[in-house]
Every structure is written in structure tokens, then in C-alpha cells.
User: Fold these one by one.
Assistant:
Number 1:
Amino acid sequence: MTEVLVVRHGETPWNFERRVQGWEDIPLNETGIRQAEALARHLSRTRHQGNQIDAIYSSDLQRARMTAEIVGHALSLPVVVDEGVRERHFGVLQGLVFSKMEEHEPEAARIWKSRDPDAILPEGESLRRFHERVTKAIDAIASRHLGQRVMVVSHGGAMDIIWRHAKQASLQAPREAELLNASINRLKIMPARWEIIEWGNVAHLTGDADNDMTA
């Protein structure tokens, strides 16, 4: 068994503007940097309470990498880049404001909203391919760290895939998981089963010093 802390990157300007990011390489904004710093302080404090993190992995996109590097600096750990946990490629939808997708790219917006697992977004990626990529990457990371605790900094879409895989939920079902910037989402990864320990923990961003990852 491996405990994996899946963390969504801190806020970016496009998060704030409600734009589709996908593979566009957008950096953190000031809020995102502060969120990453708060996460780093929390993890640095709780490692002295028996919650040691043994390795840090990150998507190669800079919003995730920046978040991971801030934490890595606080914990004196290198960041291992893994393209497998990169966000979904949203193709022609990337850069568009969510509320304007239908106006600018009606067919791609229809595919996105349909949640058809095998429909490929124009110039992008299908949900099924995205699911296979992310779950394969997480399983590979877990297999390299049996009996350890690792952190993986990824993206909202990838976190949704991870939540669905752990819950054995359909790719076509409406989204239920909270996908919060700089949130801590803890899972047990086993060869035949994933189990969610906690999800959407952002107490470290609100100054709750009692949050110690043991609840």
C-alpha cells in the first residue's frame, strides 16, 4: 500500500478568469503562490507529527511544478516531473472562457458536455485516453513507493479522474468531487483497489492549525 496525497496546483490567472487551461502552460498568480506557501508550511509542520512525505511528483506544466517546488523547498525534497499526471488536452477549447465555449467552438463544447468517454475533442484528448494515462501514472508512482507517503501535484481534471477511479464511478456521471486549488486529497493506492481517505481538505489555507492529516 502507498499513501498518495494528490494536490491540485494553486490558483492561476486563468482559474480566476474561468478559462479552459488544459495543456496551456499558465503560471500561478499571487493567490496561487500564497496557497502553495501555506500548503508548504502545513506539510513542513505536520512532518514532525509522523506525517513524513517521502517523495514529490508533479505534472510538467508550470502551475503544478511551481506549487510542487515551493513545497519541495520547504521539505528539502526534489520534485520528480511526470507528464502522466498532466491535465487533459482540451484541444480547441483551450484558452476559452467556459461560458463562451458554445459560442466559439459549439461542436467541441457539445463533446465536452456530453462526457462521451470515446469522443475526442478536436485537437485534444478523449476522456477514456485521459483516464488511462492518469491512472497508469498514479499506479506506477505508487508501485515505486510501497509503504511510503508521496505527494503528487496535478490538476482539476486529473483529480476528477482519480476520484472516479477510486469510487468506481462512471466517466459519464455528473461530477461530484470538489476540485479545490492547493487542496489535500489523500488516498491509499493498492494493486487492485484505490481508497479515498479524505478529500478536499483546505484547512491549511484558512489557518486551521489543528489540521494534521490524521483525521
Note: The radius of gyration is 17 Å.
Number 2:
Amino acid sequence: MTQRKLAALSSLLAVLLGLCALNASTASARVERDGTHLIAYVQPGSTVALRTSPAGRVAGRVGSMTPFGSDRALGVITSRGSRWLGVTEAGFGHNRLVWVDAQDAGLQFARTEVALVADLSSRTLVVHRDGAAVRRFRVGVGRPGSPTPTGSFAVTDKLDGGVYGSFYGCCIIVLSAVQPHLPPGWRGGNRVAIHGTLSSSDFGRAVSAGCLHASASALRYLMRVAPIGATVVIRP
């Protein structure tokens, strides 16, 4: 390993020291002292092993692109020791954390100042920058029987809503969360997202199959400021 790579790795691991391991269903977004959140990107042409626990069984592998064609970014929720990163990735763990090796050559790292916090009880979505709330939006949330999953997740894709149907509004911000309680007869898939709606009366109500419904202006703002890999905490 080159001296430059060792220095970069030492810097990364220093950021992670002192964090405790948590399950995604209970974890809060981990904010470093400078107010930033860590993102692990899978480098082009690489695959990265996702493990059930630190140094545990390999649950699967992911490449550098998501099924929707976006660059693969794993939101880092927590760590174990100085090597293992607890990340959130749809399709693995049933909304529980999976683990990657911080020393995996297929990973590169970045930070973001932005995180999103959704509160299901108040039906709000708050944008945080450097740990401070900067914007707040009313949103629709999952209805009884198909509630919005809670936990710490990440933005995986940002899509043009018009490509998928007018009922999604202008934009779709796909999350790593999956919906384990789909309504009977539902055919829209199990991924949770923040997207638009045909009815503005949705905002502030429990009306969806699990996704968060937001206004067009809120979505366009989120598309600009929230990078792929940004942490999204959904609270009860």
C-alpha cells in the first residue's frame, strides 16, 4: 500500500473511531464533529461485499451502479472499531444494517453537510445542514396498514418523475428503505421514496403506501441539495 493511500485511510479511520454499532431500525444518523456525514461510493468497475455483521458472512455483492442507473453510494450509519462500516442498502438486511470493509479497494469516500429527517408523527421533513435545520416541509406519510418504515436510510437515486407516471410528480428521491407491509394488490414495488402526488391534500396526512409525498417545490429543492448517499432518518 502506498504512503498516500495509507495516509488517506488513516484520516478516514480517525473520523470513525469512537462510534458504536447500531441497528438501522434504531440508529440515528451519525454526524461527525464538523457536522458532516460520511458516504462510501463504489468505484466504477468494482464490486463490494456486503456482510451480515463485521467480518461476518457475505450477504451479497453490489457494483458501482444501482438498478435505476445511478452511481452506487452507501450511506454510512455507524462503525465497528476502526475497520467495519455499517451501511444501508436496499435489498439486503430487510431495513437492517449490512457491513462493508473500510479497507476495500473498491470504495472511495466523501462527506456531505446535508441530512434529511422525517418525523411521521408531525408529518414533516426537515433538511439539516451542518447539523442545523434549514428547511421544513409538510409531507404525506404511510397510511395505517402500510406505514412508512422507520430507521436510518440513505438516498440511492434521484429520478425524473415524469418517466414513471404523472402520479409521482416532478421528481422521485429513492431511498434505501423497503416497505415490508405492502397494501393488498399493490404492484408498484417495495422501494420507499420521497415523491410527488396528484393531490395537495396529501400533505400532513397518512395516505400513502409507505412513501413520503412532497410538493413539487420541496422536491426540486431536495433534488438540488441532497446528494446521492445522504442520510435520511425516519422517526416514528
Note: The first strand starts at residue 37 and ends at 42.
